[in-house]
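Ligand: SN-glycerol-3-phosphate. Inputs:
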Amino acid sequence: MRKFTVIAHRGVSGYAPENTLAAFRKALDLKVDAVECDVQLCRSREVLVFHDRRLKRITGQNGILRRKKLAELRKLDAGNGEVIPTLKEVLDLLDARCAVNIELKGRKMALPVASILRNSIRTGSWKLEDFFVSAFRFRELRRFHEIMPEIPIALLFAKKPRGMKRKIRLLKPFAANLSAEHIRPEWVKRVHKGGLKVYVWTVDNAPEAARLRAMGVDGFFSNYPDKLIK
Ligand code: G3P
Ligand code: MG
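Predicted complex:
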């Protein structure tokens, strides 16, 4: 697996519209070691890079992404005239120049995402070790691991990391990603005891990063990765 400490959250979403090609281009400009993107399936079954279930916050339009076809979604403005990109477009742009954390949002993502990753590895510059996959939904993550066990897994927790022993046994994850808002020193210790690294989301300034470093965390998701990469 590649080495990284700072992961650009939703691309570099502090300086460009989140999860758009502009945000991933910015990540390349800043020479980040890793980016995170959120993926979901639309009605015509393409895997799109988009965070919310609803379109409103990002595009200003009503509706739910998974109920719309790609052609309809492509007409929407995802910020500064950017369109909602497909996962394939993002991977083609990045072209293995940084590691990629794919966060599965929604259900039934495991198979289509695995097929895109396999294809990028077969036909592009990508290697297995360039990717890692995470999801709040443990079932989806487990399903992905069953389909493509060679891709590293990071557990993802909104609050307390629960069921660690079972989850470690089933998925052999390399990391647990914890929320900066809720993190506690004893959780970091427990995750480390299980042999996993701890990455924290989302950390946007150096003093906060220093506070978390003192707690022993291994790395950060950041909307402003340049403020943390020193
Ligand atoms: O994967 C870390 C972080 O992205 C999880 O939260 O809501 O930003 O996808 P969210
Ligand atoms: Mg995410």
